[in-house]
Write a structure and sequence with these properties.
With 128 residues, this protein is mostly beta strands. 5% of the residues lie in helices and 46% in strands. The protein has a single domain, classed as Jelly Rolls (Sandwich), CATH 2.60.120. Strands 1, 2, 3, 4, 5, 6, 7 and 8 form an eight-stranded mixed beta sheet that branches. Strand 2 and strand 3 form a beta hairpin.
């Protein structure tokens, strides 16, 4: 099986402006181990919800930074020479062009803020 097919990544914008976003409801309804949903657009950026358990592949974004914020659980961000550990209510920005991999040892809920142009799979990965 193609490793990229194990991720449920939804780039459609789920909520427009002036709409309530109910994160606990979205989390409760999620059955996937690796789920990514674009929640809304804010100017030239998007806010994405990640519900994660397991690990993502190594990748990078050539032109965009990526911000991760943990709402529940623990997120590990592997960089080439170190691992960043984010617990609840902690955030971290991975600068553009920096290879990284995210991992969640248990079910973890995060928000990501990034340019709308970011391809979540990385700049050199495509779904087949």
């Amino acid at each position: 099986m193609n490793e990229l097919k194990k991720y449920d990544i939804n780039l459609n914008i789920k909520h427009g402006s002036l709409k309530l976003i109910d994160i606990p409801d979205l989390v409760a309804r999620c059955k996937e181990k690796w789920y990514n949903q674009t929640l809304c657009r804010v100017n030239d950026c998007v806010v994405r919800l990640g519900i994660l358990h397991g690990e993502f592949h190594w990748h990078k974004h050539d032109k965009e930074d990526e911000f991760f914020f943990v709402l529940r659980g623990k997120l590990l961000i592997d960089l080439k020479k170190k691992t960043i550990v984010l617990k609840k209510h902690r955030g971290y920005t991975v600068p553009r062009n920096v290879p990284h991999r995210t991992r969640a040892p248990k079910k973890t809920v995060i928000l990501m803020v990034e340019a709308a142009s970011v391809q979540p799979l990385g700049d050199n990965k495509r779904r087949s």
